[in-house]
Amino acid sequence: MTTNNLVLAGTITRSRQFDSPAGIAHTVVMLEHKSQRYEAGMLRNVYCQIQVVLSGEHFNSVAKDLKAGVEIQVEGFINLQQSRNGQNRLVLHAENVELKT
């Protein structure tokens, strides 16, 4: 199975920008999502936080606007990332970002 696509909207809680040793621009944000959805006929509150990575020049024009408090919608793929302390987490790698505010 090769499908890996996620669309998620939320509010940025943290943001940082840096260039990799290869000179590739990266913006990393923490995205907080809150909503309500129906599941099994019942309304439930939904909440999650996920790290979003935006890599490459095509995000340069929007990167300066990606600050805490800004609402965005991100489309991309998820990948497992292992931290330095050995913990695994899912990270959303952006392919498209839309400002909502």
From TrEMBL:
PROSITE patterns: SSB. It comes from the Bacteria. GO terms for molecular function: single-stranded DNA binding. Keywords: DNA replication, DNA-binding, Primosome. The keyword rRNA-binding does not apply. GO terms for biological process: DNA replication, synthesis of primer. One of its GO terms (cellular component) is primosome complex. Homodimer. Interacts with PriA and DnaT. Component of the replication restart primosome. Primosome assembly occurs via a 'hand-off' mechanism. PriA binds to replication forks, subsequently PriB then DnaT bind; DnaT then displaces ssDNA to generate the helicase loading substrate. Involved in the restart of stalled replication forks, which reloads the replicative helicase on sites other than the origin of replication; the PriA-PriB pathway is the major replication restart pathway. During primosome assembly it facilitates complex formation between PriA and DnaT on DNA; stabilizes PriA on DNA. Stimulates the DNA unwinding activity of PriA helicase. HAMAP family: PriB (MF_00720). Belongs to the PriB family. This is Replication restart protein PriB. It comes from Shewanella fidelis.
